[in-house]
Write a structure and sequence with these properties.
By secondary structure, the protein is mainly alpha-helical. The longest helix is centred in the middle third of the chain and has 33 residues, at about 90-120. Helix 1 crosses helix 5, helix 4 (about 90-120) runs antiparallel to helix 5 and helix 4 (about 90-120) packs antiparallel against helix 6. It has helices spanning about 5-35, 40, 55-70, 90-120, 130-150, 160-165, 170-175, 185-195, 200-224.
């Protein structure tokens, strides 16, 4: 990708990306606090300041790799620490703490769809930043629905797996959590396949993109 185009893509993607991963982790921490665990707050992670959630690989290196390969910015933030022993109700707490992250992205995604429709239908196209704002909002729709669906995949250590784990006990729980040892291998394989043109992960996440597009069209219809 040409340097100028890369910088432009990064600039229009960065606000939505940072907001999506920051709110995701904040939601985990806030829900943990609601169930009695203040670990995130004590470690300065119960904040909407993106700097507190930066992961060197997930927030910087991976997004740059995606951009360099001509794709959209994708990545993650540093996981918020949670001490299950502090929770008032461990199983219920584990479920809702895990679900809080993807749920926050769904809310942000829906809000982005609505704001996109408002700008597209109510702002004059002669406005200097009209196209740029729509592009930024379009990316915000994309990344939030993508993160929501991706994190709901029930494979350790994603949030969906912790939601499933909250219903398991004993040997079944141990066997399920043991799958986490294969996580890096599985994700590297999916990434390698995508580089070879086999979009396995793309097929899995296609519903996320479709949901975002249909909601945007729905709001455009309501406001148009």
């Amino acid at each position: 990708m040409e340097m100028q185009k890369l910088i432009f893509t990064m600039a229009q993607s960065l606000p939505g990306f940072l907001l999506a991963i920051t709110v995701h982790e904040w939601a985990h921490g806030y829900m943990a606090k609601s169930f009695g665990d203040n670990t995130a707050k004590e470690q300065g992670r119960l904040t909407l300041n993106p700097a507190a959630h930066i992961d060197m690989f997930g927030t910087i290196v991976l997004p740059l790799i995606c951009l360099a390969l001509g794709g959209a910015v994708f990545g993650y933030a540093k996981p918020v620490p949670v001490n299950l022993r502090n929770l008032k109700n461990i199983r219920k707490g584990m479920f809702w703490i895990s679900f809080a992250g993807p749920l926050s992205n769904l809310v942000l995604g829906i809000l982005s769809c609505f704001i996109y429709a408002v700008v597209a239908t109510q702002v004059d196209q002669s406005f200097a930043y009209y196209a740029i704002i729509l592009q930024m909002l379009g990316y915000s729709v994309f990344i939030n629905f993508l993160l929501a669906v991706f994190n709901l995949i029930p494979f350790p250590p994603l949030d969906g797996s912790k939601m499933v784990a909250s219903f398991l006990k004993g040997k079944a729980l141990m066997q399920y959590e043991a799958l986490s040892r294969y996580a890096n291998m599985v994700f590297l394989l999916l990434f390698a396949l995508s580089l070879m043109g086999v979009s396995t992960l793309g097929h899995i996440l296609a519903p996320a993109q479709m949901l975002g597009q249909r909601l945007t069209v729905y709001f455009l219809y309501l406001l148009g």
